[in-house]
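Appendix B. Chain record.
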Amino acid sequence: MELPYIVFSHNEISDFDKSINKEWLITNGLGGYSSSTILGINTRKYHALLVAAFYPPRERRVTLSKLDEDLILDGKIFRLGANDFSHGLYPQGYSFLKEFKISPFPTYVYKKNKVVLKKTILLPYEKNAVVAFYDVTNKANSVCSVKIYPLIAYRNHHNVINRKVNPVWLNQKNKEKEFQLAFNNPMATIIARAINGKFIKKPVWVEGLFYRKEEERGESSFDQGYQPGFFDFHVSKNSNLKFAVISSAATNKEKAKEFLQEVGSNITCVENLFNQEVNSRLNRLENFYYSKNMTMNDDLNWILLAANDFIAKGFDDRRFILAGFHWFGSWGRDTFVSLPGLMLITNRFTEARKVILEYANYCSQGIIPNLINDKTGELMFNTVDGTLWFINTILQYLKNTADFAFIKNHLWQTLKDIIENHKKGTIKGIYVDNDGLLSHGPQLTWMDAIVDGAPFTPRAGKAVEIQALWYNALCTLQLLARIFGEKRLSDEYFELSEKAKTSFNKKFWNSNQNCLFDVVEESGSDSSLRPNQLIAGALDFRIIDEEKAKQVVDLVQKELLTPVGLRSLSPKDPRYKSLYSGDRKHRDQAYHNGTVWPWLLGPFITIYLKTKGYTLSSRQYISEKIIKPFFTLQVRQGGLGTISEIYDADLPYTPRGCMAQAWSVAEPLRAYVEDVCLVRPRFESQILSKLNFPK
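Structure tokens predicted for this chain:
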């Protein structure tokens, strides 16, 4: 078995406008990452060879921005690096790029005359360190030299450097093969070391670095970086030389040194590390296919490998799911929409328990936090659905493990408290109304964009997917209460669920359009055609009958389905915006009013096959017309080997937002494995048969 790969030839790379938009990402399991474009030009403030998570998975700081190479042949300098400045691109080293490949690590292959330089970027797992591994073949009859210039930009990855506004204090110490930089705001040490080379001190600040993607987004787009000197390597004539530059970062010098020591001090150590990382990925894929009895395919391999990128280890062996790269941290809603696809489908049950417990411990007044602030760790509780997705995740966990002891011993009281708090009323106007449905304030659903300080799609009242999730939660709690011998509670949850279901079907059916209203309020019903109604028929305990679910599927498929996901609003709606572009205000206006979301393919596929039947022809249709083209094309688009957060709503469906998004990967993966391939959770029938509800 081999790892999948994506290759771009020199001719493909030479199409600058396409190449500049192709990004790669590798992660280290701590929340840290390495990322850039296939041209080696950083187009985002988030692009860097090492963004270290100083308090995993939080406090992510750019440390090593990039490494630019000069190749010296017969006294002539050929600059292989490439940077964007306010006055233009310099140098334009991508013109020497013979090939770019990612398999699974990004590799740049440069060629000039008879010299080929290959650079591969590697992030060691669970270490705030990066390795740039070089393999240079010199077939010329003279010695060639390679000078590598590191660029340091010690800052939070959301910010840029402006020394006039915020002066940078640093202290540089040099050795024969390395340099150390100490910073004090906040305190940190960055070390970079050469293997088979030496370091030459030549400090200079590089001004006017320009990030074109940030300008497009209306964000700060100019930066500064510190170049402490360069690493020097010499390759004899008609020979081959392997060398490396290793960099690490930590809050103190001792820890930074420890990371370097764990990487090793010679090329053999680096090659062994490379092989270890490759083998860990191979083992992950092999274990998946063996456990599922599925046939291996490369496009699915990319999705399976991408699933690992969002899982991060924190202090005390805690686990988190990061919502997306580059700028999203740990979000409750995203975590529990994504967890089944990222962890349960991939058999990572121990880690799933840790994520569930982490958020259960945060639960306050019956609400799971929506966000753990990436900088401060502060909890934000502005969600109505995050808590309900949390309960659904527990149901999915049980379907895969039948681990009732874990639920009983660690979560049962929290779950009961959640229902009680919702019944009596809790924060943000969340309460169970007299009709048994769940009422809530504005900007609490996943459609939560703000424009000029106000929610653009407030959806206050009773949103359709919230009622579906509430009913699903009540059925799940009824199941658990029955198993745990609490009959009174089981009967109470049954009555609550039946009342909610009756009211829902009375109030939410839009007979004019043969679909569900998006929101029901006292003042009336919102008939906006949105994909949220899919949730009502996609969950295990569905709140609408099969005939209505079929009509919902047919209309949503006709109006909202695209090759990259579902539109967030019908094109027939006057508020529809097909392009997600411009500054933050204009982007947020389009965010949930047309913009396509890949994660919605998960519930769409699930409800489609539930209503059409899991026949061979239905599953082949989904596989051949939706899933396979989606996986095949999108892993080669904006974010290589992964799936972007969103897409424009009309052709050419340009990828936008985060270049890698957890639920964009998780939900299509879950639906493909469970619904298309029919690899159902091991204990599903046993669990769901304990209640006489439609499945």
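Further analysis of this model is presented in Appendix C.
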